[in-house]
Amino acid sequence: ETGVTQTPRHLVMGMTNKKSLKCEQHLGHNAMYWYKQSAKKPLELMFVYSLEERVENNSVPSRFSPECPNSSHLFLHLHTLQPEDSALYLCASSLHNTGELFFGEGSRLTVL
Amino acid sequence: AQSVTQPDIHITVSEGASLELRCNYSYGATPYLFWYVQSPGQGLQLLLKYFSGDTLVQGIKGFEAEFKRSQSSFNLRKPSVHWSDAAEYFCAVGISGNTPLVFGKGTRLSVIA
Q: Which residue in A33, A60, B33, B63 has the fewest CB atoms around it within 10 Å?
């Protein structure tokens, strides 16, 4: 059983839909991350939250909107996505001062 | 900024054969070093990590890695590969606990009978 849980595991949405990905960690960590993993591309860091404050935003388009209401939960709100946004979205968490990441199993997103 | 290179995109080995996956990093000081494994459709699982001390690190599933400062390398090894080891392997580097890890592009391992 993973300490980082992502829902849904699979999501299919049209370009005009609004949906959200959810991540929950049960490890007592205080930093959470969103990564995008596309076929034949390296892992792309999207957002980092540390102590519930966003500390990194790697030039991600505004159609992706993160939310971190507390140290255990992280959301990625999606709206008016493009087909090229289809990918595996991975959530991870860490203790602030260790660097070691614990990953969820990912949410496979398909945009039609 | 630090960077990570995994020179092999895809490696195929026979079951029972030994394995070595290469990882080189670029950073002036000794970074934190990690190896992760990803099975198809899954998240990344930590195999092992190096922070300091003994340069030969033991991990889960029979894997080990050796940190060589002179070569800026952190290669992953396993003496006898099992079919279940087929997966994608990622090397990652951190320069402190306050910065996100930098990942290599990954090496896909195929295991044949």
A: A60
Q: Do the Cβ atoms of A97 and B42 come within 8 Å?
A: no
Q: Which of A97, A98, A106 sits opposite B43 (nearest CB)?
A: A106
CB-nearest partner of A96 from B94, B97, B103? B97
Question: Which residue blocks in B51-106 are alpha helix, DSSP H?
Answer: none
Per-residue pLDDT of chain B (113 residues; tens, 9 = 90+): 778 999 999 999 999 999 999 999 998 777 899 999 999 888 999 999 998 889 999 999 999 999 999 999 999 999 999 999 999 999 999 887 667 888 999 999 999 99
C-alpha B19/C-alpha B83 separation (Å) is 12
Cα angle value A9/A12/A13 (rounded, 5°): 130
The span from the CA of A45 to the CA of B107, in Å, is 19
Put simply, the answer to whether A43 touches B103 (Cβ < 8 Å) is yes
Rounded Cα–Cα distance for residues A78 and A16 (Å): 10
Which of the residues A4, A7, A23, A43 would you substitute to probe the B interface, choosing the one with the greatest number of B C-beta atoms within 10 Å? A43
Beta strand segments in B1-63, E: 3-5, 10-14, 19-21, 24-26, 32-38, 44-50, 56-58
